[in-house]
Amino acid sequence: MELSSERVLAPLEMSQTVSQGGQPIDGDYESLPPHVSVTTHMTAGAVAGVLEHTVMYPVDSVKTRMQSLQPEPNAQYRGVYEALRRIIRTEGFLRPLRGLNITMMGAGPAHALYFACYERVKHSLSGVIKSGGNSHLANGVAGSVATVLHDAVMNPAEVVKQRMQMYKSPYRGLWDCVCKVTRTEGAGAFYRSYSTQLTMNIPFQAVHFITYETMQEWLNPHRHYHPGTHIVSGAAAGAISAAITTPLDVCKTLLNTQENVALSSMNISGHLSGMANTFRTVYKLGGVAAFFKGVQARVIYQMPSTAIAWSVYEFFKYFLTKQEARPASRNGK
């Protein structure tokens, strides 16, 4: 089915939204009129987050394995496609999807908070800094604040997910992993990488949002609903942010998985903790190159994932805002 380009490029018909006083008000779906509820952003964010994490999940599984600092011979991969093909052939068709259930459970509420917080903080700061105009500082700060909330929800899910993605994972399933980690390492294990995750995700999201908003200024200056620009802007933002923050992602993976072979080779007893210790361990095990293990898989995962997240989020924001605007239009007649 083909879509008319005029329909795709058309702005949301909110420019003629009628206020309670009967006067038309200017704006489109980006202008966040007062009647748009937080629920709109939370619903759009939740759907976008779940899709973002699920569509490219097999590549994320490959990334976790490729970031292993001392992988077993059967878990050494030359590239993303070769890794996926071998995992499916030797471990089963569904093996790359292991851990997807906990990811979906965490992604919905985490992204609902993430996008709702981002929109509110961005527009509050933009009103102060640039009198309502687009501000890169406001975008960066909003993205960083939203990340703190997002990671507080998502970090435990990340720990379980990555342990289940590992080669020869000892866990039978989600609850088996949660119970064993809690019993052997304590509840704190689920937040052992939180500081590293924040250190990674705050610059990731700051670069991500600044890149996205800058691309939108170039490609879609009038901020109409235009799926193509949201996809391109999201993909560019995801790729740049992912590449820049890969060293921190490698450290996060080591903290989450507590890779036994690597830690044993360094004579580390107990559990590795602390970002500084993790940086030293990664460097001793593989030098500078170790900090970029899995960068290809990370970029391949983030480009379409971020493009999906933004395009779905912008569509739902467009759709839900339009639905909320109809009662106001009818009441104004």
TrEMBL record:
<comment type="similarity">
    <text>Belongs to the mitochondrial carrier (TC 2.A.29) family.</text>
</comment>
<keyword id="KW-0677">Repeat</keyword>
<feature type="repeat" description="Solcar">
    <location>
        <begin position="36"/>
        <end position="124"/>
    </location>
</feature>
<comment type="function">
    <text>Mitochondrial iron transporter that specifically mediates iron uptake in developing erythroid cells, thereby playing an essential role in heme biosynthesis.</text>
</comment>
<keyword id="KW-0410">Iron transport</keyword>
<keyword id="KW-0406">Ion transport</keyword>
<feature type="repeat" description="Solcar">
    <location>
        <begin position="134"/>
        <end position="218"/>
    </location>
</feature>
<keyword id="KW-0496">Mitochondrion</keyword>
<keyword id="KW-0472">Membrane</keyword>
<keyword id="KW-1133">Transmembrane helix</keyword>
<dbReference type="Pfam" id="PF00153">
    <property type="entry name" value="Mito_carr"/>
</dbReference>
<dbReference type="GO" id="GO:0035162">
    <property type="term" value="P:embryonic hemopoiesis"/>
</dbReference>
<keyword id="KW-0812">Transmembrane</keyword>
<keyword id="KW-0813">Transport</keyword>
<protein>
    <recommendedName>
        <fullName>Mitoferrin-1</fullName>
    </recommendedName>
</protein>
<dbReference type="InterPro" id="IPR018108">
    <property type="entry name" value="MCP_transmembrane"/>
</dbReference>
<keyword id="KW-0408">Iron</keyword>
<feature type="repeat" description="Solcar">
    <location>
        <begin position="225"/>
        <end position="319"/>
    </location>
</feature>
<dbReference type="GO" id="GO:0043249">
    <property type="term" value="P:erythrocyte maturation"/>
</dbReference>
<dbReference type="GO" id="GO:0005743">
    <property type="term" value="C:mitochondrial inner membrane"/>
</dbReference>
<keyword id="KW-0999">Mitochondrion inner membrane</keyword>
<dbReference type="GO" id="GO:0015093">
    <property type="term" value="F:ferrous iron transmembrane transporter activity"/>
</dbReference>
<dbReference type="InterPro" id="IPR023395">
    <property type="entry name" value="MCP_dom_sf"/>
</dbReference>
<dbReference type="GO" id="GO:0048250">
    <property type="term" value="P:iron import into the mitochondrion"/>
</dbReference>
<dbReference type="InterPro" id="IPR002067">
    <property type="entry name" value="MCP"/>
</dbReference>
